[in-house]
Amino acid sequence: MKTFLFRSMVGIFFGAFLAILMTFAVIWFGDVQTLSGNAFIRNSLGSMFCGWFFSVTPLYFEMTGLKLWQQTLLHFITVSLLYFIISFGIGWIPFQLTTSLLSILSFLLIYFFIWIGFYLYFRSESRKLNEELNQLP
């Protein structure tokens, strides 16, 4: 529970930080001089919620009773559903077929590459630890 609460706070704060950075980027680099309060609140809450579930859902991978494919499937389904509900609901992704399909494809590719990266990293760490254990007297 302590880990869940810590990751929740970190995720929410990181999401809030990203929301502020995106607001600055839209105002400085976009054609927008001001943002409406409703848009800022909606986007900030969406970003904070995304930060929360992206930081909490990796806890699936710490559930030792599940196999890796089960952990991955649970994580993927949870993250995908929550992200796309928020993205379509807030308006980050417009309700257009081409845009929706490109967004889903981009999400799948990014998820795949991040998953492969973490898998290879932890496999390498596991090998290093096993080698160190084998060298013990």
TrEMBL record:
<dbReference type="Pfam" id="PF11457">
    <property type="entry name" value="DUF3021"/>
</dbReference>
<feature type="transmembrane region" description="Helical">
    <location>
        <begin position="73"/>
        <end position="95"/>
    </location>
</feature>
<dbReference type="InterPro" id="IPR021560">
    <property type="entry name" value="DUF3021"/>
</dbReference>
<keyword id="KW-0812">Transmembrane</keyword>
<keyword id="KW-0472">Membrane</keyword>
<keyword id="KW-1133">Transmembrane helix</keyword>
<feature type="transmembrane region" description="Helical">
    <location>
        <begin position="101"/>
        <end position="122"/>
    </location>
</feature>
<protein>
    <submittedName>
        <fullName>DUF3021 family protein</fullName>
    </submittedName>
</protein>
<feature type="transmembrane region" description="Helical">
    <location>
        <begin position="12"/>
        <end position="29"/>
    </location>
</feature>
<feature type="transmembrane region" description="Helical">
    <location>
        <begin position="41"/>
        <end position="61"/>
    </location>
</feature>
